[in-house]
Amino acid sequence: MSNQKSKFIKKVYPVVESIAGSLGIEKDKMRRSLIEKNNLEVKKNKYNLKPEEILILLPHCLQLMDCDIRVTNDINNCKRCGRCPIMNFLEIIEKFKVNVFIATGGTLARKAIKDLKPKAIIAVACERDLSSGIVDIGSLPVIGVLNDRPKGPCIDTLVDIDKIEQAIKFFLGEE
User: Fold this and answer.
1) Measured between alpha carbons, how far is residue 158 from residues 110, 120, 126, 138, 143 in Å?
2) Residue 47's closest CA among 143, 170, 165?
3) InterPro entries given for it (predicted)?
4) What is the pTM for the complete model shown?
5) First to last CA, the chain
6) What percent of the chain has pLDDT over 90?
7) Pairwise CA distance, residues 37 & 142, whole Å
8) Which of 121, 118, 133 is nearest to 168 (CA)?
């Protein structure tokens, strides 16, 4: 997304979201629209990035709530039991050599971006967190992937791993 467009989204979107809410328009519907529009804009460009230039940001709610192992500090702590999607991301790291970071919130996600300095991001989250993250990030290309919430928000969520692989291949210039 161009810098001019990202500045526009950053300034205008929160106002539009607020107005839509007061008009009774479902906020998640507006947020999904922003995510879809963002993804379309990103995909208008061509990329040929190195794997280490790609960062996958994941929400901590992908890990089972009752798991005794904490992966938020280090995804490699996962014991690969297969009960949650985290194991799939270890396989993604092995296969593609991309960076994967599990964040407990926006502050840690922004820190990971600052520390790793990626040239592109694949972000997984709910509508609210994903749309606000896209707005916050600005001109850095982000492909947003919504998580599935079969047990409700922030508990044992899921993600379509094929969408993640497609996004990685897109940024690598393979699709």
Assistant:
1) 22, 22, 11, 26, 17
2) 170
3) DUF116 (IPR002829)
4) 0.90
5) 19
6) 66
7) 11
8) 121
